[in-house]
Amino acid sequence: MTERRFDRQRRLSRMAGMNPRVPREPGRTLDPERRLRGLVQLEDDEPAEAGAPLGRLGRRLGPKGRFLVVAVFIGVAITMGSIYWDRWSNESATAADHANPAQVALGHTLYDQHCAFCHGPDLAGKPGWDGDYPSGGRPPLPLDGTGAIARLGDRDLFDVTKFGGQPFSPPTYKNDMPGFEGRLADADIWAILAFVKSRWPEEVRERQKEAAKEREG
Ligand code: HEC
């Protein structure tokens, strides 16, 4: 019983290479120092197995190259961040800000898709807009600030775009401005109006503000 246990212990300590009484077989030494030296050598020969591609690339790039890579990385991060910020603020917009380039850019795209067909890519309306159609309605009006658009406040412009012109016209008048409710989100309509207003001369935007003040006061 005791002998067997001793045997097992001997076997264990021999496997661990710790029993000085057990003769070491050549080539299978577990001398920690030698192993360490072996490792160090390994590192010198083929550097950092796992990080090798990066390490080698880093060395090939040199300090300037590494700086450039880091700079590009930071640049990309900032760009992505601002894109998401713009998108977030566009989606939650509740007003038309003609001085907000991101909102105006979105509005431009949406205008081309939904409004340009009738109001013209340059917002000039259809020729003959200042007359009436024989049928009773009117051609698409200019949205570029010519005409009388400044009489409408931002909220009016929004409502006409969302619900169409008919609800705001006498029942006997046929208004051909379609409503975009269900086709455009509110924030998209605000973006289109931001783009539209960015095309107005400053003087027209001032006139619109004055008209709104007069209506309120
Ligand atoms: C199918 C053609 C058509 C499309 C598409 C269209 N409109 Fe119109 N729009 C009209 C017509 C026609 C009028 C004039 C209605 C009237 O006064 O009888 C008008 C009038 C307006 C007015 C009122 C202008 C004023 O001075 O009274 C606004 C604002 C307007 N449209 C904005 C838009 C916007 C923004 C879009 C795109 C989201 C758009 N429209 C798309 C035909 C269109």
UniProtKB/TrEMBL annotation:
Record carries keyword Transport: yes
| Alphabetized InterPro entries for the sequence | Cyt_c-like_dom, Cyt_c-like_dom_sf, Cyt_C_IC, Cytochrome_c-type_DH
Q: Does the keyword Membrane apply?
A: yes
Segments passing through the bilayer: 67-85
Q: Per its UniProt record, what Pfam families does this chain match?
A: Cytochrome_CBB3
Biased composition, class Basic and acidic residues, residue ranges: 1-10, 22-32
Keyword terms of this UniProt record = Electron transport, Heme, Iron, Membrane, Metal-binding, Respiratory chain, Transmembrane, Transmembrane helix, Transport
Q: State the superkingdom.
A: Bacteria
What residue stretches are annotated with the Cytochrome c domain? Answer: 102-200
Q: Fetch the SUPFAM superfamilies from UniProt.
A: Cytochrome c
Cofactor names: heme c
One GO MF term on file is: heme binding
Q: Where is this region: Disordered?
A: 1-32
**Database matches in PANTHER family:** BLL4482 PROTEIN, BLL4482 PROTEIN-RELATED
Q: What is this protein called?
A: Cytochrome c domain-containing protein
From which organism does this entry originate? Thalassobaculum fulvum
